[in-house]
From TrEMBL:
Domain Serine dehydratase-like alpha subunit: 185-448
Organism: Fibrella rubiginis
GO terms of molecular function: 4 iron, 4 sulfur cluster binding; L-serine ammonia-lyase activity; metal ion binding
Protein name: L-serine dehydratase
Catalyzed reactions per annotation: L-serine = pyruvate + NH4(+)
Length: 454
């Protein structure tokens, strides 16, 4: 049963990767809180703190800033309140030592404390990190964490939440079950989703609406910053930002038939470039895909002039699709390839547009299905481990596909769609399982091998 909050799916935090930045930051923060509660004699005996990264966290963690995020988490920083400039300054000097306070004890941590392991590790998830306290030779405390995409983490051995699920008025695990609730209740999709959100987050309707408005504004702030900021993005690729020039081009061609797409591309690139620079973005559903829905919502507000209520209802529809993919497949690039990130974002964006335009659940489902279907098999092969090539342009392409999926789904009878959303999510999961690990955020294949040309 899906009991994920809208505010867990859409998180505010620093780029460039929710699974490699936000997730590890949260895990490191959690570890410090746990070891702070160790018996005094154990904590007194500990002298060293080590972090071991495996899988995609090891393969592309440097380019994603995983090491900086871990230090930030150990220092007590939280994603939603992190200063991105301060985060980028961490570990600039690899010899600098950071004091990590755990209870009454302070542990010295520097770049040498973080180990990018290249050995295969027996783990149920691709992104695994192990944090350990030792006295130099003996392990005193250790925790294993999995970063499963979108900033979500799991700690090994934590209680299974499905054993004691949150009670929601409209429980569902599939689109078919969600549609059954709509039919039985006679309520619109937004009301069903809002009722569940109130139960999960324990907020009032007014509070939920205000927080959704805040999410949309945070997305639009990223777009606006990206439209202003020029120059070169961090990292060895030396990739120049394109969004400001593209935006000016769109304005100069305002009467052209192409201007609509150029504006959309500019908005998506703007947010995605901010993410690549380590700026504050909203996971939608991941940081790597944080340009698709911000670009579409910015377009919807400033070009279609939708009001706040319509935008909220659209974002709830998008969230429903994100929930279904996360629950029944994965939104992690390290597990699904880029179809798990951009594919899901495109499907969510298609649902957003279809809901905002006033279409029913049949068209919303069809739009989301089309969005995923035409991202099946998309690899995650970032050059140099940076969320830049092909990630930034891929956000714009995902938004354009979302818009076309909306057009296709709303132009005829949704019943003519032969493939259901539930079916395509199953195919997505199977495809991710069959895909070679090299194409899952490891920078070991595909476009990543073009690094020498950059």
């Amino acid at each position: 049963m899906i009991t994920t909050s809208v505010f867990d799916l859409f998180k505010i935090g620093p780029g460039p990767s929710s699974s490699h930045t936000i997730g590890p930051m949260k895990a490191a923060y959690d570890f410090v809180q746990r070891v702070s509660n160790l018996p005094a004699d154990q904590l007194a005996a500990a002298t060293e703190l080590h972090i071991h990264l495996y899988g995609s966290l090891s393969a592309t963690g440097k380019g994603h800033g995983t090491d900086r995020a871990i230090v930030a988490g150990l220092l007590g920083w939280q994603p939603e309140t992190t200063n991105p400039d301060a985060l980028l300054n961490l570990l600039r000097d690899p010899t600098e030592v950071y004091p990590v306070q755990a209870g009454h004890k302070v542990f010295p941590v520097n770049a040498a404390s973080i180990h990018f392991e290249r050995v295969r590790y027996d783990s149920p998830y691709a992104n695994t990190m192990v944090l350990t306290l030792t006295d130099g030779s003996t392990r005193i405390a250790s925790e294993e964490y999995y970063s499963i995409g979108g900033g979500f983490i799991i700690r090994k051995g934590q209680p299974d939440e499905s054993a004691n699920p949150v009670s929601v008025p409209y429980p569902y695990s599939t689109m078919n079950e969600l549609k059954a609730h709509l039919t039985a209740s006679g309520l619109p999709l937004s009301e069903v989703l809002l009722a569940n959100e109130i139960a999960v987050s324990r907020l009032s309707r007014k509070e939920v609406n205000a927080r959704i408005d805040g999410l949309i504004e945070a997305m639009h702030k990223a777009v606006r910053r990206g439209l202003r900021h020029k120059g070169v993005l961090p990292g060895n690729i030396r990739l120049r930002r394109k969004a400001p020039a593209l935006y000016q081009q769109a304005r100069s061609l305002a009467q052209s038939a192409d201007s609509f797409l150029i504006f959309l591309n500019a908005y998506c690139l703007a947010a995605s470039e901010e993410n690549a620079a380590g700026g504050i973005v909203v996971t939608a559903p991941t940081s790597g895909a944080s340009g698709v829905i911000p670009g579409l919502t910015y377009l919807a507000k400033h070009h279609f002039h939708y009001d706040k209520t319509t935008l909220r209802e659209g974002l709830l529809a998008a969230a429903a699709i994100g929930f279904l993919v996360k629950h029944n497949a994965s939104i992690s690039g390290a597990e699904m390839g880029c179809m798990g990130e951009i594919g899901t974002a495109s499907a969510m964006g298609a649902a957003f547009l279809t809901q905002c335009a006033g279409h029913g659940i049949g068209a919303i489902e069809a739009a989301a299905e089309i969005g995923i279907e035409h991202h099946l098999g998309m690899t995650c092969d970032p050059i140099g481990g940076y969320v830049q090539i092909p990630c930034i342009e891929r956000n714009a392409m995902g938004a354009v596909k979302a818009y076309n999926a909306y057009l296709l789904a709303s132009s005829g009878s949704p019943g003519m769609q032969k493939i259901s959303l539930d079916a395509v999510i199953k195919v997505m999961k199977a495809t991710g399982r069959d895909m070679s690990t090299k194409y899952k955020e490891t920078s070991e294949a595909g476009l990543a091998l073009s690094a020498t040309e950059c």
